[in-house]
Amino acid sequence: GAGVSQSPSNKVTEKGKDVELRCDPISGHTALYWYRQSLGQGLEFLIYFQGNSAPDKSGLPSDRFSAERTGGSVSTLTIQRTQQEDSAVYLCASSQVAGAYEQYFGPGTRLTVT
Amino acid sequence: AQSVTQLDSQVPVFEEAPVELRCNYSSSVSVYLFWYVQYPNQGLQLLLKYLSGSTLVKGINGFEAEFNKSQTSFHLRKPSVHISDTAEYFCAVDPLGGGADGLTFGKGTHLIIQP
Hints:
The structure holds 2 protein chains of 2 kinds. Chain A is mainly beta. Chain A is built from no helices and 10 strands. In chain A, about 35% of the residues are buried. The model of chain A has no long low-confidence stretch (mean pLDDT about 90).
């Protein structure tokens, strides 16, 4: 595709509900990243995939957060039992390989937990 | 671990004036350095990056940055700004040869262009 796409663009959910955020990276990009952008914390790195594998999940804020990537392409970030502090913009990025190559960012999903 | 400090949260500048956005980093290993720009309600776009070689790097939209290893700085400059440059600017580092830790971002600098 032309760029990284994310869906939905906006999500409003009630506290305690589960949400699933989707990222479709640029075709051929093997590395995929999830970040969270919030007023208080700025831009935080959450998790990285090389292919379908996430070597380190320690950046996820809590065990309510999980992520997977299938077929070396689409990734989903799932937040279970959402809390108000989960409200943020969730950004996805992809790059050809990890490291020096430019990360291309999607437009983000704005999550609001009421 | 790495950290990035953007010393100014907000920088007001008159149109056609020069601007410098400051970035300092700390790291126990060599890093790659990046500047990203975020326009309102949009994702991040890469302005420029330093990987190796010449310490002065040029990017899109007339921006440039200079890597100073001794001062651990990577300040962003533009000789003449335009209204369209109003945006949030983020400095970021990536461990050399890594990537698995993602980018570490500064808190951002809001560039405000005044007519």
